[in-house]
Design a protein that fits this description.
The chain has about 100 residues and is of the alpha+beta class. It has 1 helix and 4 strands, in the order E-E-E-E-H. It has a domain of about 45 residues. The protein has a two-stranded parallel ribbon. A hairpin with a 2-residue loop joins strand 3 and strand 4. It is rod-shaped, with a radius of gyration of 41 Å.
């Protein structure tokens, strides 16, 4: 096996002999590369490794805070209406008591 980074290798074979060669090419820089072996050519592309984005904690925190605020607003609106309803019923009860006494 021949490992070469970037080189030209010349191989001479006797007539009728057969040898098998494996060529391994490694490139770290992104780009298009061409390989040529005795008129036979091929190409390969190296792409840059893209690191996936991390967790966006400020966005998650903002969403959680928004949900909490909306929940509190809804809760207090419901409690206020319930309290107003109770006060209204209490007022009616007091009016009935006044009528019964009077």
């Amino acid at each position: 096996m021949v490992y070469c980074d970037y080189a030209v290798k010349s191989i001479t074979l006797a007539a009728g002999s057969i040898e098998m060669w494996f060529l391994f090419v490694e490139r770290k820089d992104p780009g298009n590369y061409t390989v040529d072996v005795d008129g036979l050519s091929g190409s390969f592309t190296v792409v840059a490794l893209v690191k996936p984005p991390g967790i966006n904690w400020p966005l998650i925190g903002g969403i959680i805070a928004s949900v909490v605020v909306v929940g509190l607003v809804i809760y207090f609106l419901v409690v206020r209406r319930r309290a107003a309803w109770l006060l209204e019923k209490l007022g009616e009860i007091q009016k009935l008591r006044a009528k019964l006494k009077g």
